[in-house]
Amino acid sequence: MKDGFEIDKRQVRAAFDAAAPGYDEYAVLQQEVQQRLLERLDWIRLAPRRVIDLGCGPGAALKPLSKRYRGARVAGLDLAPAMAARARGQGRWLRRPWAVCGDMERLPLADRSFDLAVSAAALQWVNDLDQVFAEVRRVLAPGGLWLFATFGPDTLKELRASFAAVDGGDATHVNAFIDMHDIGDALVRAGFADPVMDQETLTLTYPDFRSLLRDLRGIGVRNALAGRARGLFGPRRLRAVEEVYLSRYGEQGRLPATWEVVYGHAWVPDAPPPSRVSGPVIPIRSVR
Prior knowledge:
The chain is α/β, with parallel strands linked by helices. The chain has helices spanning 9-19, 23-26, 28-39, 62-68, 81-88, 129-139, 157-166, 180-189, 209-218, 235-249, and strands at residues 50-54, 73-78, 98-101, 114-120, 140-151, 193-206, 255-267.
């Protein structure tokens, strides 16, 4: 991986820990993506006994998953301890979900221990997508389903272009997301069967630039790349970015923010996984 573009997991964990108390207030888009992802289960015949939400955040998906699959053991995993703690508080006290703090690139879970794994808006915070898919493949039993949603290259394109205009073409202050077709290729390399990929574009609008930044900070979006200078722009440069954003994209008193949502699912065949992931490693570069 190119030096300077590795995600600093300590920074990611700290940002999400800080965002956990007020996350639900700002995570409007993430909640919408999660709902749309779970609705896809309506069209899939599956009766899992063990279900896990990877990158579960405060655990908003755990209750609907428990309701959908009554009798199933539903669990969550998140990199941030504060998020995992909130997830454990979901549901009724007699049936609290199990939630653990862990990294998707090194899942602290036994082989073949789940029948369904879901993940909504979390894969952009990993360094090695091939490693994540290999780990998910490992913990799913034969016949298990991997269902996820993440973000594609057009996500926050307006913000990326505005930063690049001010910073001489350097757009690494905004997430760089992986293409849908590359994600599908990674599923195949990990030994999944029958992968299905599709995408849609969602647009949020804001009354001003500061409202956009407030929402991003409210969901923990901060600089997390190892090797980069700490912090974002100073006030003067941030105002310059705001001016570019307003002049290029402002319309009728509103500012758009584009999110390209990529959905995927694949099955675990009744065959051993590859001995090791082949092909090029797929890194995901991201800055909070």
